[in-house]
Amino acid sequence: MPVKTLSDGRKAWQRRDSKSQLTRWFFTLIGVAIFVWCWNRISEATTWFFVWDAPSIAGDILARATPPRWSYIEKLWVPIWDTLNIATLGTIGALILAVPVAFMAARNTTPSTLFIRPIALLIIVSTRSINSLIWALLLIAIIGPGVFAGVVAIAIRSIGFCAKLLYEAIEEIDVAQTEAIASTGASRWQVMAFGIVPQILPAFAGISVFRWDINIRESTVLGLVGAGGIGLQLSSSLNVLAWPQVALILIVILMAVVLGEWVSAKVRSAII
Amino acid sequence: MSAALQARVGQRWRKPAFIKRPWLRYTLLIGTFLYLVAAIASIEVNWSRVYEGLDRGVAFIASFTNPDFTSRATDIWEGMIESLIMTVASSVVGILISIPIGLGAARNIAPLPVYVICRGIVAVSRALQEIIVAILLVAIFGFGPLAGFMTLSFATIGFLSKLLAEDIESMDKSQAEAIRATGSRWMQWINYGVQPQFMPRLIGLSMYRLDINFRESTILGLVGAGGIGATLNTAFDRYEFDTAAAILILIIGTVMFLEYVSGLIRARVQ
Amino acid sequence: MLRLVELDKTYPTGDKALKSVDLEVPQGQVLALIGPSGAGKSTLIRCINRLVEPTSGSVFLGDVDLTKLGSGALRRERRRMGMIFQEYALVERLTVMENVLSGRLGYVGFWRSFTRRFPQSDVDEAFRLLDRVGLLEMADKRADELSGGQRQRVGICRALIQNPALLLVDEPTASLDPKTSRQIMRLICELCAERDLAAIINIHDVALAQMFVQRVVGLRFGAIEFDGPPDALTPDVLTRIYGEEDWEATIEKVEDEDEMVTA
């Protein structure tokens, strides 16, 4: 127990001894210094005149944006449909690709720990670290703008996410059940179908719905870089500063997000 | 042989269906099938364009073996630094703000009016996409990292406060009650009875959020809110795949590094 | 029928789980394997059907040396060895019927098993076995809805539908209450007698083993310490296997007052 002897000889209890207290102060100081430096850099790159003017600009935008142009909704039905498709088809595509990757990445099912597992992990890390908007940019450069690029971008982005959660589920399965199936003389694939798949099916269903919910959000903004969906309308309305249309689109996106979350919560509680 | 067995032997056996009611099962099946057909049919794919693109795709993948860090070195360097700065600053501010809001959004320690307001903030923050918030903030505050910083802070608040509040709501009541029973003030009660219970998880979640903030900061540049995104966008626009590859490698490397560090820290505090 | 010759198992950690074990089990004999935890009982059973690869030595099932087989041939031989597990090891999210039928996986192709179209003879046999153990009504229930004793009976059906020559039974009663334990042990021994099966039963409970089996083998530190009839288990022998303890109460004959296993 850290105890300090006071100048008059009495002992006083302390939470930490003076050495760990010092290191703590030291790291706090470094932390604060880094933050201050970061803030300075941001501040240098900022035109503070605009910032002081921000309240009036915000008020101005709000005044222009209200009321939303409700009649514009007629032009939004097709983009909404596209957005839904990008999310759904992208999720399905991602799941089809993620399942083999997950089996290759899980320690207990990988065919080779030395060669195949690192490749699978690399696929997971690289697809996960790069945002779907960047994937969309890349795909537009390669296969041209449109809904298809959006579907592929969402699919690629979701592989790593789904495969990671899935392979963690595979690694957590009960080995006794697979052993029991193997001991009946079942083949490798039968062990997979009877011993492993039933155990990870609930996790798989949960992951799919969870990712679909996220993908609904992401697909609403893919259009900003030209990959289809309602983001295209948002981008073109912003370009011409048509704030009433922007307001309507934002409302639609909000509703889509809330609806997506509601559906996914419903489905998940039905599964589990 | 019992009568029940008699009735079963010789009969076909089928696995009981997942959805018991036949009409619901078939409606769902046919509905899903029709939707998929309609969805796939509504996607226009310009296959000749895709075919042409394959060359570019191969070129892009090939460029990963030969990334170009040098020709746009200053742009890349400044972009990455700016992304990191926004990440750090927004994480710090976001975490500091999300603690009081998280406390306020926990029904078991906050009074109802505070609870409603804090839950409202959380809901708004979670429903709005980062990139959309960034667009609005750029329009209001002008181009630059300040808008990005504010966007990420705002998103951090929604993420952390919600998880924090859920954590506090599911905490062990008896520990908190024991502290309250000593006659402590509200602040003391939080400090001694509640804080020790959520602190390890808060640190873990904060590290996780730092990681997310960095990944998000790489795209904010697309709408002018600072960071590496602008450089990356330019690289793609000019088909400079080797520069783009270099940036992507940097992003992936940084994310892996952050995940590694956060793993270390989480292992230490838990 | 089953013959182990100088079977050795050393784990990568350096633990010697089995030291040159020789054992012969004739057809129709039920054998109990006793010994302290860590004596290598579980390893011995798993080395026979090669869920654990033996380090050296041979396992003969009939005339076939199991340790020399490739994976395809091993799978064909595994069909002749039914295994019953400690924690039942049923696939919990599958139905009782699917669990029983999974015993036939070695006999049907992948696609037929994947679409659950097992041959009618297998389906009939599954129903007969479920009826025999009193679980016919449970056929379409999910395995995790059953109680411990019921699950172990499903595990027995899964092993028997393989039409095995040998049963490998790993602590069948370890997670069951005393009454259910006896019922399960009796069921296994009855079924072995009905079908003239040999069985190796790993068991902790010495009294329970004495009640039902014809031969007891005691394992200590991976080597056979005792091999003989159940009445030859004197306190002296138990001390050799388990170490010093007062054994009189353990081997006292317990009166068997339970009725037959019924539905």
Short description:
The complex is a heterotrimer of chains A (272), B (270) and C (263). With 270 residues, chain B is an all-alpha fold. Helix content of chain B is 78%, strand content 0%.
Structural class of chain A: mainly alpha
The CATH class of chain A is identified as Mainly Alpha
Q: Which strand-content bin applies to the residues of chain A? A: under 5%
Main beta sheet of chain C, described?
A: 6 strands, mixed
* Integer average pLDDT of chain C: 87
The class by helix and strand makeup of chain C works out as alpha/beta
Q: Remind me, CATH topology of chain A?
A: MetI-like fold
Shape of chain A: flat
CATH class of the largest domain in chain C: Alpha Beta
- Helix content bin of chain C: 25-40%
Instruction: Let me know the CATH homologous superfamily of the largest domain in chain C.
Output: P-loop containing nucleotide triphosphate hydrolases
What is the C-alpha radius of gyration of chain A, as a whole number of Å? 27 Å
Q: How many domains make up the 3D coordinates of chain C? A: 2
The CATH homologous superfamily of chain A is named MetI-like
- Strand neighbour order, sheet with most strands of chain A: 1-2
Total helices of chain C: the number is 10
